[in-house]
From TrEMBL:
Protein name: Pyridoxine 5'-phosphate synthase
Gene responsible for this protein: pdxJ
CDD domains: PNPsynthase (cd00003)
Any one GO cellular component localisation term in the record: cytosol
Keyword hit for Transferase: yes
């Protein structure tokens, strides 16, 4: 069965958890020198060879890391699924529609931020989403909304017609002890509500070898998107080693 096939019935058995590798920060290193290397596509291919189930990139309006040519190169060379993150900006939605990506994740974007700081305000963005979601769907990819584990936002996400949400795990990743456990419970409740509403559920942001295990065990999750921690670890153990370590931490390998 196609793991991205739409129409999963409510209450259907959960699919096996997948690891998508975000290769943005390979491009960050390259862009620091405006050089030709390191190449995000070569890194992606090495990750696939080690067991990555898909590749994620965020094409930002300011092109701070991933470039348009990177998206084209990845689409032409990788053998797994390409997930393209972009904002609701008209230009970026147009580019996404023409990209040939297998999936799209709509994210908030602030030019001053270092990294994405939170989930999309689905309630406030309902008008733009009413246009963007069906447009992206007609282009051939499945649409996901990057949201905080807020129950009202998840209800609003279900109303857009997008088949997926991706839960923002940043607050969980940036807390410790009792506060982290509380954030983990928020993620569990959010995933449960999303499933009840017929949404499929991914998660990501700030996950690493230390904190990924409890998130990987949340019911109904289909995919984790992990980038910075995996790219950073690859500096020491290589792309393949970093992917294999993450798969073990996620419980996908012994």
């Amino acid at each position: 069965m196609d793991i991205y096939a739409p129409g999963m019935a409510k209450g259907a058995p959960d699919l096996a958890l997948r690891l998508h590798v975000n290769v943005d920060h390979v491009a960050t290193v390259r862009q620091a020198r405006r050089a030709r290397f390191p190449d995000p596509t070569e890194f992606a291919l090495a990750c696939e060879a080690a067991g990555a189930d898909g590749i994620t990139v965020h094409l930002r309006k300011d092109r701070r890391h991933i470039q348009d040519d990177d998206v084209q190169a990845l689409r032409g060379r990788i053998g797994t699924l390409l997930n393209l993150e972009c904002s609701l900006d008209d230009e970026m939605v147009d580019l996404a529609c023409d990209s040939g990506a297998d999936a799209f994740c709509l994210v908030p974007e602030n030019r001053a931020e270092v990294t994405t700081e939170g989930g999309l305000d689905v309630i406030a963005e309902s008008a733009r989403l009413a246009t963007a979601v069906p447009r992206l769907g007609r282009s051939g990819g499945l649409v996901s909304l990057f949201v905080d584990p807020d129950l009202d936002q998840i209800r609003a996400a279900a109303a857009t017609g997008a088949p997926f949400i991706e839960l923002h795990t940043g607050r969980y990743a940036n807390t410790v002890d009792a506060e982290r456990e509380a954030e983990l419970e928020r993620l569990r409740r959010a995933a449960e509500l999303a499933h009840e509403l017929g949404l499929r559920v991914n998660a990501g942001h700030g996950l690493d070898l230390v904190n990924v295990g409890p998130v990987a065990r949340i019911a109904h999750l289909e995919e984790l998107n992990i980038g910075h921690a995996l790219v950073a670890r690859a500096l020491f153990v290589g792309a393949g080693g970093a992917v294999r370590e993450m798969r073990v931490a996620m419980g996908l390998e012994g």
